[in-house]
Design brief:
It is a single chain. The protein is an all-alpha fold and 269 residues long. The chain has a single domain, classed as Serine Threonine Protein Phosphatase 5, Tetratricopeptide repeat (Alpha Horseshoe). 60% of the residues lie in helices and 0% in strands. It has 13 helices and no strands. Helix 5 packs parallel to helix 8. The longest helix has 25 residues. The termini are far apart.
């Protein structure tokens, strides 16, 4: 049986190699940081995508090139859903749900052809040795995503709700700007608690789910120490102010805008 020290060294070596591979891909290919982050956020690892990654991906989706790459990865993850490798598809749904509520308006139309794949996930059944019903959790999430894609009224209502919630959080967080530097440096080590409070669809059932993610014996991981998060953390999740007026949204104008114009639109918001 491997010693804890050997396991720790192995984990560090694996992390080091992964970082080197990312650096090489960025240097030698046309891959973008947002693309690599989306791949990592929707891989088969047992833990859910972290808050910082979701925030970065959400903002990157407003840039044309990254938008196409992010959507393409999500399509592939949904297409690869099966009974053995389901976590990547599940995490893709988590990210898609967030993007539907916080990302570009046009993203809802991108997944019209994926509705049958998402419906198939509703039939997934799996209860782990801890007694957690992953099938039920995935079923609830897939139904919500389907409703966002199919019901335009519900889609717009949820975007307004998410936008108002984000504005409230950002306004409250502005009272503690002096602590923003510390918060920024600690984002990488954010616990799952941050995700519970930031995601646009996260209830008590899913809060329990995050705990199971970190304690499941099948997938060994060290749970980070949870501590009360500063209010500024939430600014990363949905910083772009997404006006529901199609005429003022960057993706509802000329689809051939340059990356610079889209980024400036995001920054101005």
């Amino acid at each position: 049986m491997s010693s804890p020290l050997f396991y720790e060294l192995k984990k560090q070596a694996s992390s080091f190699l992964k970082e080197k591979m990312k650096t090489a891909r960025l240097a030698l290919t046309d891959a973008t940081p947002a693309e690599l982050m989306t791949e990592e956020a929707t891989n088969e690892n047992p833990w859910p995508p972290d808050t910082r990654s979701i925030g970065v991906i959400s903002r990157a989706a407003f840039e044309v090139d990254d938008y196409c790459r992010i959507v393409d990865i999500l399509h592939k993850r949904l297409l690869n859903f099966n009974r053995k490798n389901w976590r990547g598809s599940y995490k893709a749904l988590i990210l898609l749900e967030h993007l539907l509520c916080h990302g570009p308006l046009r993203i809802v139309g991108e997944f019209e052809d994926d509705k049958d794949l998402i419906k198939e996930m509703e039939r997934f059944q799996y209860i782990d040795e801890k007694g957690f019903n992953w099938g039920l959790s995935l079923r609830k999430l897939s139904k919500r995503v389907l409703k966002l894609v199919e019901d335009e009224v519900f889609f717009r209502e949820e975007r307004v709700r998410a936008r108002n919630l984000t504005r409230g959080i950002e306004g409250f967080g502005s009272l503690s700007l002096q602590r923003s530097s510390f918060i920024d440096s600690s984002l990488k080590g954010s616990s799952l608690k941050t995700y519970e409070r930031s995601n646009s669809h996260y209830n008590d059932h899913q809060s329990r789910e995050s705990q199971v993610f970190s304690s499941n014996k099948k997938f060994v991981m060290k749970e980070e120490l949870e501590k009360p998060q500063q209010n500024d953390d939430h600014g990363d999740i949905s910083k772009p102010d997404m006006n529901l007026d199609k005429g003022s949204h960057p993706f509802c104008q000329d689809e051939h805008q340059t990356a610079e114009s889209l980024l400036s639109t995001v920054n101005e918001s």
